Amino acid sequence: MTNSIYISTAEPNSGKALVALGILENSLRKSSKVGFFKPVIGDYNSGKEDEHISLVIDHFGLDLNYEEAYGLTLKRANELISQGKKDEMLEIVISKYKKLEERFDFILIESSDYKNSITLEHSLNIEFAKNLASPVLVLTNAHNKSIDDCIDALRVAIDDFASNDCEVIGSIVNRVNTDIINDLNTELAKQFKGNKMLLSTVPADDRMSSPTVRDIVEHTNAKVLYGEKNLDVLVDNITIAAMQMQNFLPKIKENSLVITPGDRSDILLGTISAHRAQSYPNVSGMLLTTGLEPDDSIKQVIDGMKDMFPILSVPENTYLTANFANEVHASMRANDLSRISYAKELFDKHVDSKILSELLATVKVKGMTPKMFQYTLTERARQKKARIVLPEGNDHRVLEASAILASQDIVDIILLGKKEEIVDVARKNAITIDFDKIEIINPVEYVKFNEYVNTLYELRKHKGMNLDMATDAMSDVSYFGTMMVQMGDANGMVSGAVHTTAATIRPALQVIKTKPGTSVVSSVFFMSLPDRVLVYGDCAVNPNPNSEQLAEIAISSAETAIAFGIEPKIAMLSYSSGSSGSGEQVEKVRAATEIAKEKRPDLKIEGPIQYDAAVDPTVGAQKMPGSEVAGQANVLVFPDLNTGNNTYKAVQRETGAIAIGPVLQGLNKPVNDLSRGCLVEDILNTVIITAIQGNQA
């Protein structure tokens, strides 16, 4: 039977998103075949989807479409129950769940959202857990509750499930006030002594519970007048401004949403001024009520200001609007990588991973999955923290990745650029980043700048470089970052989100240079398929390598694979297999294979060989019987850049594989290149790879 866990809440706002993200993250480290299912979802207007379903499918890239991920709507469930067709309702849910059960090794089942009748939805969750034969993990919300209240709510929910023959495997109490968390843990252990259960508490955290301005917009149906790009800032406080300006200003708190009638231009302009002043807290936004908008003269003032915080407008009066705003709860979206990362971090820190592992121990492992590979890499990087320099400190993607890497304590990040500009980019893009954990260096002000200039001059003077030229070059962040690596002030560099590949590689070739015995710098991609990880080389650097270069690329790719825990079986790819074909390109690959075998007789190398014969056991056995590589190759070396680049992109797009790279190889010290269209996830993966390389250099 497929393994599953049913997470059910005892009441609304109990932190299901945090728990779902944590459990799915852990499950995907064991198997790629992980599903998500909600027996009942709320009744949404046309075009709007269940937030949690969209979140987990999009963030984790689950092999699941939206319609498959739920049974039926709450409205439809109510209709069937009122018609005496409860069994039909259960059959719909069970039928859709069983289809998932055939496809997945583990399914996380999530209860309804308690947005309607708590009694009805709780009884439905008991029915679904029982009929799907899934063990239950009960969640509850401890916000503003006493210890006794928390225990009572948990006890009632657990007893309800247990009395209906549902196995309860544990509980998680979310949003616990820090002053009672230790006593609550003690009382939980006492109350449930002798029960083999997961008993965990997660402290209250504003970053998880505070809504964003975007949440306010969606809940109040507000019109966005200004600051649309800053809607993702958090709202920690709501402040109503009805008094005179001098009396209102002292009331402003950090990250407040200020609510005031739309004709209070004094409040509007005063709040903007206070937000921009260093002596006042930051304001998250303003919500103007009564449908009145600033007149033209006020708009002219605002239009002249850069980076305006969100200013919203609603037709309702101030009293109703304040009530609506106070009802808004934090939501999480797939593109909110910072908050998602923080949620996973909280889960890992406060939920007993040993007990969770025991609960999930029967999930069948299916080879090295993408999540397993990424998890292993992250843990390796974390075990021996490297210093990684990122020259493009002004890029918002680089900053978002840096925030995640710093908060998870994976590597020590060095950003190049002016601190005030970097901080401003973070603020404008609503990136929460702890700059105390990140080093920011302005190259021209660095204490070793002149030493770096002299070192570059000595390295390049035989090429005609003088000190002035060296000074100009070292003012360039790519050269400066490369020199930090060369001088041992950083373990590796990642660049290319803004700069070209040439701008990244050229300084590395001039300063760091290639390893002894290596004449060519090449690259690989780690292609994380659903059930395995393949190494593709070279898909990014060398347009048309000759036989000697191709052999060197194969050897470098094998060494990279070994460095990352993959035992290499190398396929030298061509359009024919073995001795069946001829032609210039086939002969190049055949010669490269012989050269590689001669240089490294310890490696398993086959070529020339076609892609299908390299990776498909049946085809491999037919075309090259007895081969140690055919049908089981995991390092695939392409004959040229055109073939390699198109193949990796085709596989990535058509299969949903995660492509990690390009990872440069052949340099004395690690420098890695990004695509200018890279995503935050690409930067994270490349930094982690570089950190591991740096620790091995």
Automatic annotation (TrEMBL):
Pfam families associated with the record: AAA_26 (PF13500), DRTGG (PF07085), PTA_PTB (PF01515)
GO molecular function: phosphate acetyltransferase activity
Record bears the keyword Transferase: yes
Domain Phosphate acetyl/butaryl transferase: 372-691
Annotated catalysed reactions: acetyl-CoA + phosphate = acetyl phosphate + CoA
UniProt pathway: Metabolic intermediate biosynthesis; acetyl-CoA biosynthesis; acetyl-CoA from acetate: step 2/2
Superkingdom per UniProt: Bacteria
Enzyme Commission designation: 2.3.1.8
Domain DRTGG: 215-327
Location in the cell: Cytoplasm
Alphabetically ordered keywords of this record: Acyltransferase, Cytoplasm, Transferase
GO cellular component: cytoplasm
Family: In the C-terminal section; belongs to the phosphate acetyltransferase and butyryltransferase family. In the N-terminal section; belongs to the CobB/CobQ family.
UniProt-listed PANTHER family: PHOSPHATE ACETYLTRANSFERASE (PTHR43356)
Subunit structure: Homohexamer.
Domain comment quoted from the record: The N-terminal region seems to be important for proper quaternary structure. The C-terminal region contains the substrate-binding site.
Known role: Involved in acetate metabolism.
Name of the protein this chain belongs to: Phosphate acetyltransferase
Organism: Flammeovirga yaeyamensis
